[in-house]
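User: Please predict structures.

Assistant: First:
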Amino acid sequence: MTDLSSALHLAAPEAALAAGGLVLLLTGAFIGEKSARLISGLSVLLLFVVAALTAVGPLGSAFNGAYVADPLAVYGKVVIFLSAAVAIVLGDGWMHRTRIAKFEYPILIVLASAGMGMMASSGDLISLYIGIELHSLALYVLAAFHRDNLKASEAGLKYFVLGALSSGLLLYGASLIYGFAGSMRFEDIAAFATANPGPGLIFGLVFLICGLAFKVSAAPFHMWTPDVYEGAPTPVVALFATAPKVAAMVLIVRVLIEGFGVAHAQWAQVIILISLISFAVGSFGGLMQKDIQRLLAYSSIINIGYALLGVAAGTEAGVQATLMFMTLYVIDQFGFFAVLLSLSRNGRPIRKIADLAGLKKDRPLMAVALTILSLSAVGIPPMSGFWGKFFVFGAAADAGYWMAGVAGLVASVVAGFYYLRIIKVMWFDAAETEVATDKSPLEAKWVALAAAAFCFPLVIVALTWLEPLTRAAASGVGAG
């Protein structure tokens, strides 16, 4: 009984989110749609409380190693839960402005957060799969949340079908790994790989990597990303671009470095190849886009390529660079989507790059914020995006993958064109009509301004010295 209570204490964050989600669901069912704002507020409060408890909670493993609470999991879950809370805040204003307020929206995010937390704490292949499916089921519904919109329904269907395909690849790889290693636990798999590094185990790992690459929308497993980003509601896309990617990246670090660290030379080649393809698809594919959300989809593809370079290094510096890059990436993405949610033209949300024309005159503060965020995304020093890429490329070069780092720099230059085009349209093109014709939600403005403020170097320098980040990276390579 003591062991069970200790295990439940370790898994308290996910248990609290699951129980809280069910209580909120019952509350919404009894009160009705008018409870949407109340449910949103309670969901945000729940996520903040769980994030705080996670940060100071106990460390250890439970359920025979299937659940791991270590510094890597703690850091990832704090970022995930806070990101989910911001997504609910952005979505609440959007739902009331579009008059489709539904109390299920924040509840789905809470339940998805429980799955993402499970992903970050996975200690074996079964908990890995449970976490992925738990958060994916909620995300499928969120993608089609605006069910009266044809594009949203199409986005949800595409995400569901391709998600099922990726789950099949992941399960096939997991079954091969279990068949050769005889265990589901990452620790046992690592021990077996050390003694018997055979091609069958690597073959299964490649399939597992393919399934995980889908979750982070890395090329060539990115097929769903542009269409889902374009069709899903804007606050839902803001969630897709942030928390699930952090969860999947933490999971990739845990699987590859903790479970298959001895086979680094083999899987690093696959990760480098995925990074290079992501560079090409993300940089050149974004050049032709006119829809902002679709453009941000290609931006996410190239940025995941950068993050994977740190994973490919297989070192503590590489893991730390990846975690730092993903944290800064999340802040940038929330800034972009918050700007979009704070703007409208003739009562309709801004979706096209051309719609940003004249923004410097109508919304100068938002124009400045979007300019800062764009320069950060390009990687212009001394913005946060520059430091994220600097540490990732440095870790890759130290590990001997300097050619991949050079390819990333070239891709960054190419991708800089579409960010600079946004700046050019805002500051130099004349608007045909007023940019803003209705009252914009204050929460979106504050998120946009906060994200832009975080892009400045003083905060980023402080971030590099954060002890939780260092301990998370050490834990990721087995030094914690």
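Second:
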Amino acid sequence: MDLLERYLAAVQQELPADKQQDVTRELKANILDQLDALREQTPEQSDEEHVLHVLHELGPPKQMAYQFHPPQPLIRAELIPLFRFTLFMVLGIIFLINVVESTLLWLGHDQMGLLLLLKHMGSGFIGDATLAFTGITLGFWSMSKEQKNRCQQLPNWDPSKLPQLSQKWQRIELSDIFTDLATYLFLLILIWYPAWGEVQSSLSLTEQSRFILQVFSPVLLLGIANNLWQLSQRNWTPALLKANLLLNAFMVIAILLLAFTGPLITDVPERLYWLDADQLHRSITISLLILALFPGWEVIRDGRRLLQLKK
């Protein structure tokens, strides 16, 4: 039985002091019962062989101790939904701020290409996101260390206000909301930055293209308002779907107008990299037509979803 005592001692070391005696007593009684049953089944084997068989089936001492006293997570389970929501909200705001800062820097420097823009945006977001993640995690860890359950301090909720969710797709992801917000902010800055300061670039939008974009700027502002509305609701409703459908329809119209009303950019050099001026304009037109497919697909998707909710 020396092996059994060694096993119990090893399990005991993995347990908190206030649970060691009770768990050891219960585990020892369980093992002895298994040994008695095993002796009746295989009387030809020795006691040492019986003990080895039982302990092998039970597993390592640390694994056995975890069954009686599971390790405490860094953040308590009831705080995980609030932790996830807070993390996504903060990271989304950081992402929007980095998009705005990087876009302004890109428009203000002629020698900063698109790859440098993406690099600046990515490195800035990663640095800020790492700091935010560390701070939020430490904050929720300190909340988890408290004995009092803070989740129970929330105001009483009203069951009659539960949303009607009949489809799996009705939940709006935070990542989709903040991606759309970043896109709208990027386009607004791109359109109106020349009104704030001179853009140091050899390529610039034509007056006709800029006029079309400025005319459709209120659509971008409505898009931002729509995203904030989605953020407050977090579930697709018929009203939200109709608003999103109209916004995407206007986006398709704006992109198609840009594609078919003449050159998008002016002051084009005779050759840019491996493209001449005509090839560049044609490539931009094709790119705009491909770009129009994305909001066009969302128009079709939202129309189908509206029909599903009406059934």
